[in-house]
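Supplementary Methods, section 5.1.

A reviewer requested that the exact input to the structure prediction be made available. We therefore reproduce it here, unchanged from the version used in the analyses.
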Amino acid sequence: MGASPTDTDFGSDPIPIFKSSAAPGSDG
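The structure derived from this sequence is encoded token-by-token as follows.
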């Protein structure tokens, strides 16, 4: 998960919906 180049594990991504459902902006 986390296709955005600016995606971080801290949930700073503007579109956490596209990330893992486990946590907002999380790659896992």
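The chain has a mean pLDDT of 55. These observations are discussed further in the main text.
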